Amino acid sequence: MKPTGIVFFPAFDWGISPTHPEREERLLYTRDQLFEEGIMDLPQIVEYQPRMANDRDIARTHFCIPGVADQATDAHRISCGGALTIADAVMNAQIKNGFALVRPPGHHAMRVAHGNRGFCNINNEAIMVDYLRYHYGLKKIAIVDTDVHHGDGTQDIFWHDPDVLFISFHQDGRTLYPGSGFVQEIGGPLAQCSTINIPLPPGTGDQGILYVLDNLVLPILQDFKPDLIVNSAGQDNHYTDPLANMQFTAQGYAELNRRLAPDIAVLEGGYSVETALPYINMGIIMAMAGISYSNLYEPDYKGHRFEKQKAGSSIKMTVERLQNLWQIREALIDDTRKRQKEFYQQQKSIYYDTDGINEQQLETVRMCPDCMGYHTIDSHASLHSGDENHVFCISIPLKACLRCQGDAWNLYEDRKAKDDVYQALYMQDKVQDRFLRYSVRDGQEISFE
Length: 449
Fold this sequence. Notes:
By secondary structure, the protein is of the alpha/beta class.
């Protein structure tokens, strides 16, 4: 039996402020607990050292404004590189599965990145997924986001991609940041039901979350048949977390991971630094490694507080509604193809709560009959400093047809020759693995390597 791989990166040199919930102690207490309990000495566990993600790894997923170096510090690159290290170890059959215990987190970072939102600048899981598909040729990947906050960044990045199934269960967005992740958010016109959002009422505990897993998440995964499952492993559903209002336990997290059996888990949120995270992380590791966690409990655990919390009627109704949508997903896409014109457009307003940035986007997608179409994003951001960024981004998906590839490149060259509206143009060609930034003001073009 192959071991479970672990990467630790507490990011000593990165933080929003010394007392901010997203700080290095999130991992230091966990590391101490694991070594004290002897988990790291077991043959079922092997530790890896993270590497640094390079510009190409990041530009394959993000349009970083004005450039990758402006959004990704060394700490971000190592955090992301920890996920890539685990991904390589899994794909090279060195380990059976792995957990990247890294920070800064990433699941609120969207495709266009002007700054930090929800403590995130770049999206570790999304970058890892694009890396796996390009370097290892994986066809279908599923991401199950177990953070208490909706993974709106990951959703945004894969919104139009039918080959990446994104499932997020989280505290209802009407009661918690970022205020999204509702049942009707099911993906772009050619990728409907590749996004599954399961908003849960505050107070949901082990019984409710495991009900959702057994009755919705696992059956959908069985239908989708992914080549690989990623757990976006947020831990702020815990009953002691200071930023949310849920009632999940360390035992619940361990059982969820045993049933889900992810190939890779990547740490996201979780801010009960001393009383929860060491026990949750230990439970996840033990479940992934096949070690018994029957005696794993938090110091203040009182089982009777949670035994009566069954899945309520609202959770069952949400599950039933999403089950029905999943069954008609192909019909929804066929109907959309009949009704849509050559191009689909949507406008979005995005707020970067950490950096005080307001962004307006106009996204355009070609409704191609042969592929998922090329995408453009007109992004206009007002920064806290009073400055503005106005950029035009073009993305060619990995499976784009030759027509869409050619038309996207023609659009890029045409904008270079004629456009003086934007500060910069960006080309993200995932087929050729080529990523460019053209400065309209000085006519300079750079390649992200």
